[in-house]
Design brief:
Layout: H1 3-24, H2 28-48, H3 52-76, H4 82-90, H5 92-110, H6 112-115, H7 132-140, H8 145-166, H9 178-182, H10 186-189, E1 192-194, E2 197-199
Antiparallel strand pairs: 1-2
Helix pairs in contact: 1-2, 2-3
Length: 200
């Protein structure tokens, strides 16, 4: 077995075991940490495919931002774990059946009979000065520039819609009016008390 194959099987085994631990451990913090390990293993597989940009994006975006948010929410909220554990045992047979069906379909698609090495040759090695980031940027901003811009606009609209839906104007909430603060006069704020009498 070659060294590259050994590294691939190592990352694949770590990713499978950590992904299984995400849904089997009882502590939600441990589940989130196992998900972080799954992302790191997936990033290692991306590196083996010479897709370093996708690997570092997976680490920075999901591990550095999304998972930190998950951990913050899980640790700050008081989550009642009893109902969650009861539903896990109840739906375990259905989940196992769905997992077996997905594994069978993936085996049929990427198996040796359908997508074997005898039908498609291995890709050639990229030269030493090859940059996956530069190639991805060139394709993204030339061939797929319009879909990229449309996706950016859709995400922007989704952000604005989420903020507008979550914004609630409550009458008891306190807020500041900068215009009123700037236009204030000394007589409106200052009151001098002398010998029990007030003088504005």
């Amino acid at each position: 077995m070659a060294f590259e194959q050994a590294i691939f099987y190592f990352f694949a085994a770590v990713m499978l075991l950590s992904a299984a631990a995400v849904i089997t451990v009882r502590n939600p913090v441990h589940s989130a940490l196992f998900l972080v390990l799954t992302f790191f293993a997936a990033a290692g597989l991306w590196l083996l495919l010479e897709a370093e940009f996708l690997a570092i994006t997976l680490v920075l975006v999901y591990v550095g931002a999304v998972m930190v948010l998950f951990l913050f929410v899980v640790m700050m909220l008081d989550i009642n774990l009893a109902p969650l554990r009861e539903g896990f045992i109840r739906y375990l047979p259905v989940g196992a059946l769905v997992a077996i069906m997905v594994m069978v379909m993936m085996g049929l698609v990427v198996g040796p009979e359908t997508f074997g090495l005898d039908r498609i040759a291995a890709p050639e090695r990229a030269p030493a000065d090859y940059s996956n980031t530069a190639e991805l940027g060139r394709v993204l901003y030339t061939v797929y520039v319009y879909p990229f811009e449309i996706a950016a606009v859709i995400l922007l609209v989704a952000i604005v819609a989420a903020i507008s839906l979550a914004l609630r104007h409550r009458p008891q909430s306190k807020h500041q009016n900068p215009d009123a603060q700037i236009a204030v006069h000394k007589a409106d704020r200052l009151r001098i008390h002398r010998n029990g009498h007030s003088a504005d």
